[in-house]
Each structure stands twice: as C-alpha cells, then as structure tokens.
Amino acid sequence: MSSNSIHKAISKRLQKAIDHFTVNGKLPVEVEWKPYQIDPGTEPNGEEFNAYCKRRWGGSGWTQHLQSEGVKNGARFSNWKWWPNTLRGHQWIMYGKEKHGLDTNKANEVLFRALYEQGENLSDTETLIRLAENTLPEVDVEDLRDYITKDKGAARVMQEIDRGRRAFGIQGVPFFVVGATGLATPYAFSGAQASESFLEVFEELSEKLKD
User: Fold this and answer.
1) Count of domains for the chain
2) Phi, psi of 176 (to 5 degrees)
C-alpha cells in the first residue's frame, strides 16, 4: 500500500507505461507493492484528514497541486476524509496475498479507491473486513479480524520495511526497484516519475536481456 497520497497518481503513470510497453508483445511486467510507513506516529485508529494536515503542516493547501496532477492521470481524490495509520492496511494486503493469492497491485487499487474516493478510514478494522468481503468473497471474516486485531502480520510488515532500507537505502516513498530474471543488478530510483521514465527503464532492461 502507498504510504502517502502521491502513490495513487504514480500508480496510474506506472500502469500507463506498462500498458504501452506490453501492447506490442514485449516482456510481461509484474508489479509487487512493498510496505513502507512515512509517519508511524499517526494515531493507530487514523486521523481526520484536515486535522492531521493542520497539525503536521499547518494546513492542507499542499494537496491542491497533487489533486490537480492526479486528475490528469486518472487518479481522483474526490472524497479524501482520513489520514490513516497504514500498518493495518499493510497487514490486510499481506493477508490477502498469503491466504487468497490477492495480487498486491489489485489490493492497492482497492485501498486507494476506498481511501481517496469513498472516504473510508483504512485504520479501521471493520472497514478493512468489509473491503475484504467485497474483494474476496471466500474470506474467513473471523480469521481476518483475528489477524488484524492481534497484529499477527505487523512484525513481518516491519521486517519488509527494514529489508528495503538495508538492501536499497530506502528512506522515503515513492521508491521503485525494477529488475528482470537473468539480470543481477536491478534499477532502483526514487521520486514521482513520469510514465516516460518508467518506459525508458523497461526498454533498457529489455535491450540488456537481448545482449
């Protein structure tokens, strides 16, 4: 799951690059999201959006450009009410992947839509359970509730975050690692990349695999 709102717009740009790259029968591209928390100090049950922005930055004016850019990429922020503590959301994604094979890209789409377009609080366990019921009809509700409320996946989420810091020096997001089978060294880069930037990396990796 994205740890901040810019990931929603970036995910749209990334998907645009993937669609452009694969449309001509080129190498398939698989996307896997890894956890990261920008502000672990966010209240465990989340915070009302405007109140959080006022407390941390003095206001929410900084989101105006973000929302404007998001519209250009098909990423709307039409009903953004909460600033969640993302730990439970990360556990939700991990549970869906391990128990039901839910693709992390699909999982993040569900959470992005819920947070930014449906006004949901992703720190709320019952909200996450409802989203799971809508996404995974076969989900065991009580098992998921137990998993989240008892923080059964929390330690592993933090291990994943620590692994990213140690392996790639990740200190913030968005951050991307792009590799391919047969290549020892992946590309690692940070920042709000344009679709063209992703496409250039895909093309370069593709050419290297031909060598």
Assistant:
1) 1
2) -130, 140
In the DSSP assignment, the letter for residue 171 is -
Is residue 5 a contact partner of residue 77, using CB atoms and an 8 Å limit? yes
3-state secondary structure of 47: strand
In a domain, 179, yes or no: yes
The range of the structural domain enclosing residue 80 comes to: 6-210
Q: Which helix (H) or strand (E) holds 187?
A: strand 187-190
Alpha-carbon dihedral 172, 29, 93, 132, rounded to 10 degrees: 140
Question: Which residue has tokens 């004016």?
Answer: 61
Q: What is the CATH number of the domain that holds 165?
A: 3.40.30.10
Classify residue 1: in a domain, yes or no: no
Q: pTM for the whole thing?
A: 0.83
pLDDT (tens digit, 9 = 90+) per residue, 145-193?
999 999 999 999 999 999 999 999 998 888 899 888 777 788 888 877 8
Show the tokens assigned to 119. Answer: 């006004």
Tokens 């990423």 map to which residue?
75
Amino acid at 5: S
